[in-house]
Amino acid sequence: MTLKFLLLLFIFLAAWAGWRYFDLRRAVNALTKQIERGEELSVVCSQLQELVSAVRAERSDYKAQLTDCETQRSRLSAILDQLTDGVLIADAEGRIHFANPAAHRLFGKSLLGHSVAEAIRHHSLIEAWWRCRESGELQTETAEMPLSRHFLQLVVAPDCDVSGGTLLLAQDLTRIRRLETIRRDFISNLSHELRTPLASLKALTNTLQDGALSDPEAGPRFLSRIHTEVDALAQMAQEMLDLSKIESGQVKLELRAVTPCKLLSSAAERMGQQVKRAGLSLQIDCPSHLPTVQADALRVEQVLINLIHNAVKFTQPGGEVTLLAEAGQGEVRFGVQDTGMGIPADELPRIFERFYRVDKSRTSGGGTGLGLSISRHLVELHGGRIWAESVEGKGSTFYFTLPVLNG
Ligand code: ADP
Fold first, then answer.
1. Mean pLDDT of 210-220
2. Ligand 1 center to residue 299 CA distance, Å?
3. What DSSP state is assigned to residue 168?
4. Which residues have a Cβ under 8 Å from the Cβ of 374 and sit 6 or more positions away?
5. Does the beta carbon of 239 lie inside 6 Å of ligand 1?
6. Which of 22, 52, 146, 385 has the greatest count of CB atoms below 10 A from its CB?
7. How far apart are CA 116 and CA 101, in angstroms?
8. How much is the pTM?
9. Going by DSSP bridges, is the β-strand pair 320-327/281-285 parallel, antiparallel, or unpaired?
10. CA–centroid distance, residue 357 to ligand 1 (Å)
11. What is the pLDDT of residues 40-69, one digit of tens each?
């Protein structure tokens, strides 16, 4: 019985020990697997970490490049917007797919999608574009646009990025050409105008050299004529300088609020003596309620003095010179009226031209023919107009307008 009990106990203990062993094995196996899996994860984790850092670095590089590109792009676009030259980009088919604002100003609003020929509309400029496409070389052409009268220079270059594409640069040379024409005319007018006084000076000095110098009557007379010619030349030089400064845009007005009557009275004061010496009377007709004008007082005075000077020159003693001002639509109209010899109707439209004189023998004091041209420029700089009305034998009135302050 005891043996049987001991055997049973042994069997029970052996079974329990076996069950525990298998249980532990299973836990160890699971743990090993867990550890193995843990090691793989950490490797993957560290690789992932590296990858993330690389992507992050790449991304910040890319971002910096993108910002750089964006800055360059907006800088380029600002330059193209501000550029006074027109820029057009055409594809291989000759269709325009880019035009800056200056190109729109020069060639019109609808350019995109149109052909180069439709946009530039000038045969010699279109030919330059064709030549560039065929030769692949830069071409330059200048032409005056028939409608706008703009004088353009077109540079056509092949687009290196697009095969068959072209870049067109249009420069407006109108102003430069206008200045060149002014300069050319000026020189030709000047040489023409200098010829007469210089010839006269040469004749006078020759006569003096030939013996008139010792003649008590002729000597002083010739010297006085030389004096007059030299004065006229000096005046011409001064007026030419004035005119060239005005025409080339170097004269800047200093605009201020001025009362019309003040402008008239200050010019009358400066010319009073001269008018009196010529045996003329000077009146001012200026209502006190006139609106204030916006003007450069010194420049307007220069205009008034030119006009009064002419009135004195072309009016016989005993005549009258009247300075007047009256209100107009957003402007004040000024006038210098005389009772002089007047101007023939067919000459009136030309008297504001540079060097134009109605009849060079009409006045003993001579004249350059520049005064009215200078006056016209000065009035137009103010945004006003100038014109003359005249009846031959009765007198002339020169009018000009100035804009009313805030009018
Ligand atoms: P300038 O008086 O020096 O000759 P302007 O340009 O002032 O030159 O005038 C051009 C021409 O217009 C004068 O030569 C003259 O023939 C004519 N003219 C100007 N003002 C008058 C005037 N008040 N009366 C008659 N003719 C005038």
1. 89
2. 19
3. E
4. 239, 242, 243, 246, 302, 306
5. no
6. 385
7. 16
8. 0.60
9. parallel
10. 6
11. 666 656 777 887 788 788 788 888 898 998
